[in-house]
């Protein structure tokens, strides 16, 4: 502004207000310069004082290798350079805040890892490597309605978990979840795999400098079960499900665990023959086979949860437990084996999301049995918490591999053949992806259970 005042002073002409022709030309040029400077100053002032209230999320191109997105979005307040108060769990969560109710908000800083910086992503969830062209699904974070939930600090988490053992027990969604956690933690310390079963479904890892052990135990029913499936998940014989016997694959190890995340879900929808008291008691979806009584999947699911929750609530068990609720899928126009697909690229709002009847019924049973356990067992009030990821997951139909569970799925496929030849995965989650936010909630609830019952 001083330069503008100086220019105005120099433009004053003594004597004749119009002066000579040469003077008039000089005056005209100075007036032009004066107004240009005013306009430029105004632009700087307005630009510096006006900030868009909503971050702009753009589709980012992929680098030539097709592996990692090139960020184009502006820096976020949650980026490492700006956010300095991140802890293992949120320090800003108010008493009794419902961290499971909220919305997905733009997060231009993106995930804390990529499929290049983490080598523990299963092929079917490695969406970027498999050729998924859009990356908007990476640029969101979960924001509870009434409180803040920063990403937890992996360094502090590992320090807290020194000499501890954390186990995930369940189906392939549990494996999906533990891979997300490992990818985050491996940005601090690389993990060592020290065990896997024959099918690579159950694994054990260790973070050596912290002596922190992490397990995933494949137990899709949490109960004793005999399953008969091929590599594509197609059953060639009915599942034999023992509703009064827990799966020893996890119960025999349970004494070793300090923290446990346990869950059931979609496997209970499969055709199953039920066994109780050493006899066949009924079935689910067996269509009158051998005159068996159709008891349904809700019967078997409730039986399983009751048995599981009673076991983990026993006073002799030391482990802190989180029970994770069911995960909704987002198949549209069919199911996984009938041409169903999920091609959305953006989150939806609560008013748009509608769960399938099966998911609603299963979650109702989960909440009923969980709260029943809290009421009946004094010990459980200290060591069991709820990880209710159902609602937040419902809002992310964009976060699944879809056709990109396989590398370059549309190579050589005609447009009119896509929905018939390409099998979509609308249940599991891309890594990185929305499931990464489960870890923020998981750590907050595990360390501050009293706030979230």
From TrEMBL:
Q: State where it is primarily located.
A: membrane
| InterPro entries referenced in this protein's UniProt entry, alphabetically | TBL, TBL_C, TBL_N
**Keyword DNA damage on entry:** no
A Gene Ontology molecular function term for this protein is:
O-acetyltransferase activity
Q: Where in the cell is it found?
A: Membrane
Q: Which Pfam families match?
A: PC-Esterase, PMR5N
Occurrences of domain Trichome birefringence-like N-terminal (ranges): 96-148
What residues form the membrane-spanning segments? 27-45
Write down the membrane topology.
Answer: Single-pass membrane protein
Keywords linked to the UniProt accession:
Membrane, Signal-anchor, Transmembrane, Transmembrane helix
Give residue ranges for domain Trichome birefringence-like C-terminal.
Answer: 149-444
Q: To which protein family does this belong?
A: Belongs to the PC-esterase family. TBL subfamily.
Q: Which PANTHER family match?
A: PROTEIN TRICHOME BIREFRINGENCE-LIKE 25, PROTEIN TRICHOME BIREFRINGENCE-LIKE 9-RELATED
Record's protein name = Uncharacterized protein
